[in-house]
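Supplementary material to the annual report.
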Amino acid sequence: MTDLSAFRPSRRAVLQSGAAGMALMAAGPQAFAQETPKRGGILSFAIAAEPPTYDLHGSQTFAVMQRVAPHYSTLLRYKGGAYPEIVGDLAESWTSAPDGLTHTFKLRSGVLFHDGTPMTSADVKASYERIRNPPKGVVSSRQASLGKVGSIETPDPQTVVFKMSAVSSSFIDEVAASPWNAIYSAARLEKDPAWPIRNVMGTGPFEFVEHVAGSHWVGKRFEKYFRQGYPFLDGFRAITMSPAATVNALVGKQIQAEFRGFSPAERDRLIKGMGADAKVQEGGWLLHQDISFNPKRKPFDDPRVRRALSLAIDRWSASRSLGRISVLRDIGGVMMPGGQWAATEAELEKLPGFGKDMAANRAEAKRLLKEAGAENLKIQLLNRAIEPYITAGIYLIDQWRQIGVTVENHDAETAAWYASIGGDNFDVVMDSYTDYTDDPTTGLPKFLSAEKWPIAAPKFNDPELDDLYARQGATNDKAERRKLVRAFEARTMEQAYTVPILWWRRIVVMQDAVKGWTMSPTHMLYQDLAEVWLA
Amino acid sequence: MTTLSQTALRPSPARRRWRDNPVVDFAVSQPLGVAGLVAVLAMVVAAVLADFIAPYDPVAIDFEAMLAPPSLAHPFGTDSFGRDILTRIMYGARTALTIGFISSFIGCTIGALIGLASAYYGGWRDMIVQRGIDLLLSFPIIVLALVVVAMVGRNRVGGIDVNLICAITVPIIPRAARVVRSAGLSIREMPYVDAARAAGYSSARIILRHMAPNVLGPYLILLTAYIAQAILLEASLSFLGLGVNEPTPAWGLMLSGNSANFYQTAPWMILFPGAAISLAVFGFNLVGDALRDWLDPRLKT
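Predicted assembly:
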């Protein structure tokens, strides 16, 4: 399902890292397996943003995932040191019917929630029903991925059966292994479906201790965790700090890791400051920086205006220049560059906004704006006060200035940024989307209609896009699926409700003493920290 | 002997006429103040004439010139987006002065009115106001500004962030009120205030027409001193990401972001904006101190 060739540590990363880091990178998963884990210690790591919610079902941001994931379990998970191999987490085993319409999961016995109550199939059903059909007041960011689930049955406390209304070619990846699909307590949800938004209690390797807003989040080892011998750490402390402070804290050994990623300049500073203590890992990132236009506001209800603004962005120049100062680097369409579903360079160049002749692109953009009666356009850009959003914003404002568009920029904190999106209070919003596997079914919902993707920033209705998405997910013919993905991509760029600017390049630097953590092309995976240990 | 001594100490009539010009008198008696004034005027000229004298567009990106060191083409070098730092400092003066002056003016004016009213009424009303001021003064100025900006968020009107000005204004108010109240307490006891009371003038008229003009000296000193403070606060808030947003040129903002990553290889990215902030604060403080000394009659005897 996933093309791992698109994800590999770079030669530069290996050469630049310290000796211990190089040894680990060169040995890969073998080294992961060979080292003998040591028990104990508290892992301190940095997170650059505050969580707007504690609810994994309703979140898309690392600010939630990296803090909350250690407290929960999922049905399946990606195997440590062997991405993208899938193994059972709460599920002991699973089978899929030959027709692809039934998936049966056998659950482990003896799994306990942190409050001591046993986990059963009822909890799995309640959690998945909450994602499929979120009650009033609950946001579900993964609703679209469960669109083909017809019903969920629980014949006994240890068995869950997903009956599909249609075949989903990537069901196991998109549903069972999604790190967002945490299993909550059915009893707690029954009392209050919104309980997980402000409370934390799961079956994960760590119990929740405290969250002090703006300061830290603390977890301690759950002694009755169902995976025997795990976790190795006594606990973890996630500290809220800016990227600049994170660099200094890593160099000063006040923290041991940061899992999201650094810019090339930050990496170079870290290598210089940490010397042989630095473990550097680099690779592609299933994460694209994008912009969304609010079609409920004029003139963004006009596709010509949206397309003009996308056309004006010189992505090729951005890749060369922004790649030197930020994590924004790779040029791609709706699927990860270099991956098996990605457009080729020739295919990309045919899409609006990806042509290399910028003079022609800008002339066409101006023509479209004039045609739409939107010359001398003044717009407000809602941005997030975090890198690389700020860098991307500066670049965009300059690009749009070149076609006569004036931009008023507003860098908002994460919670305020989410609130503005939720309330449709924006003209244009700088956004991003991260996936956990290189599959169109999990990667494309960002571009769907609001009906299919309720938390989408732009609220629009485009049946053609939705249909192309549904059709690509229903076929097992790879060539046919690729064709449908290209058609989806073309439609996305033409309508330009949401368009990618650049894809991120992941650079993770941590203390070499942090072992057992797996680098992957997403900062949402391997964050339950069960296998992490300190040397 | 006495006559001779007095004659010797008295300036000659020509010199006295020359010193009667207040501008000349200020220049002669307060040379450091003049130096501060020169720095402030340079800043004002840069802010007002930036559109004409700045060599580049302050927001234009030029990746060909990314992180260029100081040269003839870019006297202060360029930042990580290739933007000319000299140009951004010139336009940054506009941001600093606008926010600094408006915040200081509003803060000092409101503070002065509160201080005067508190001094005039006295009694339990004065006590309540002063305890409120004590409460506000217990917060460090930057903390109070941070609290306000975090509470009210952002609200741009005509290109100016009104809430940022609010955040900077609020910490100035109690400080100005406390100083003006001290002056007001002695003015309240003056015979002309008693006369105004006896004539039946309203409290508002006595405060605004009879007391306010007599605290103009301390008010002007506060105004200049707090412009410096406001510029520093704006720079601090922008540095922390709570002030002015990119790509608006602002000195504090120029010290944040990518500057942290490149200050070792491109020190000009932080050197010149830092110097601009220091010079502006230094300039306004010198002017404020000089005004205080010049207006203080005790220092003239």
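The longest strand of chain B covers residues 156-157.
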